[in-house]
Design a protein that fits this description.
By secondary structure, the chain is mostly helical.
């Protein structure tokens, strides 16, 4: 069985992209500072603890064990205490939390880094499809290997039509096959 398509036809290109979508696994989400795989841009691997910490008027962070779950505040701007927590326990927990927060190092004050953006010549979708067809017919790449390129270049069949960088990378990869 031989399947052919016209790369100049919008309908044929859409059909090929829809078919390819069925073979692609979803891309994993990007790691954040709360993920175990998170990597610090400052060279250490400790997520910043006090960046963006919500504190009350006294500089105390909200503490689940002693503060109201609503995160409500008193008229003076301090955290509202949880029901049943005595004043001594509340004050001790708040003092400890303020000391912990003060001992947490701030992110270093680094100068901004200028990143040169690589200029990638635009590659039309038809050129990518033609290059894939050439490589496929020459036996240089299988459909499974081509689908793996989406993950390798952090894109998807849905995204490739608008992601010029990934399209150019996949195109260059295919050209490098021979």
């Amino acid at each position: 069985m031989q399947i052919t398509f016209n790369p100049a036809s919008d309908e044929d290109r859409a059909a090929v992209l829809n078919l390819l979508e069925t073979f692609v696994a979803p891309v994993a989400p990007v790691a954040t500072a709360t993920d175990p795989e998170w990597v610090s841009p400052y060279g250490d691997n400790n997520p910043p603890v006090n960046v963006g910490v919500d504190t009350d008027v006294n500089g105390t962070p909200w503490i689940a064990d002693v503060h109201a779950g609503s995160k409500g505040r008193n008229k003076d701007g301090s955290w509202r205490a949880k029901r049943g927590v005595d004043k001594a326990t509340l004050e001790a927990a708040e003092e400890a939390a303020r000391l912990d927060l003060a001992a947490t190092p701030e992110a270093p004050d680094l100068p901004p880094v200028k990143v040169e953006q690589e200029t990638v010549p635009p590659i039309e979708m038809t050129a990518l499809i033609s290059e894939y067809t050439r490589c496929s017919e020459a036996g240089l790449i299988s459909a499974t290997e081509f689908l793996a390129l989406y993950e390798q270049y952090n894109t998807s069949p849905q995204d490739i039509a608008t992601n010029e960088t990934a399209r150019a990378q996949i195109y260059a990869h295919l050209q490098g096959l021979g």
